[in-house]
Amino acid sequence: MKIGILNAGNIGSRLARAWAEAGHDLVVAKDGEDRKIAPLLEELGDRARLGTTREAAEFGETVLFSVYWPRVEAIVAEVGDALDGKIVIETMNPLGVTADFQHFHDLEFMRESSTAEDLQRRLPKARIVKAFNLLAAPALEAAAWSASPVQPGIFYVTDDVAAGQVTRGLIADAGFKPVNAGRLSGARQLEQVGVLLHHIADHEYGGDADLVRLALAVAEASPGPIMRARIT
User: Fold this and answer.
1) Where does the record locate the signal sequence feature (predicted)?
2) 171-230 pLDDT tens trace
3) Which fold has domain 2-205?
4) Cα separations in angstroms, 101 against 33, 70, 95, 136
5) Which of the listed residues 24, 152, 155, 221 has the most CB atoms within 10 Å of its CB?
6) How far apart are CA 12 and CA 18, in angstroms?
7) Domain positions in the chain
8) Cβ distance 153 to 216 under 8 Å?
9) Distance from C-alpha of 150 to C-alpha of 1, rounded to nearest angstrom
10) CA atoms within 13 A on the CB side of 171
11) pTM attached to this predicted model
């Protein structure tokens, strides 16, 4: 598959490695100084080449929209109509930033919308899928879970069934288990789970720094649930 990477930051670069290894062809863009991804491109070899944001959008049958939330408007303006009809996998969380460069969840925005719904409004002809927003970048490699008894799930939501099937394949190619969480409006709950993970990291573990160690998984009871007579 031809995949455009917008942009090759912490998440995009990790998925680019996994997808190149799985045999996909990539055009990789960097929002900012593209010289920073020269080592990544060298590592990916002939499976990837550098492009502008617009070129990556035009190249991909599927496009990874892994953009810093405050930069969405500028990136959408740059790609224009290049994403019309394309599967667009967005990984964002609604993180604001203060003048002191402190990040925070935009809770007011989250009450009424999600980054996925916002992007669908901005790109009405694109086929938006939300995925990969709940794993911190350092944990978004299958090797990070090689000794774990439970494989983390990558939850995704979309209103486009066919786009969801393609996304399932790409999640598996990245080394994770795809979990269908329903319609695109469910992105609100996925983003709120991100807030929950921050709370768990802060209160159950050693603080927010331990967020990079946390993930969610759907576990099935084995051999099965233990059914008993209901007590009334």
Assistant:
1) none
2) 999 999 999 999 999 999 999 999 999 899 989 988 777 788 899 999 889 999 999 998
3) Rossmann fold (3.40.50)
4) 19, 12, 11, 19
5) 155
6) 10
7) 2-205
8) yes
9) 29
10) 27
11) 0.93
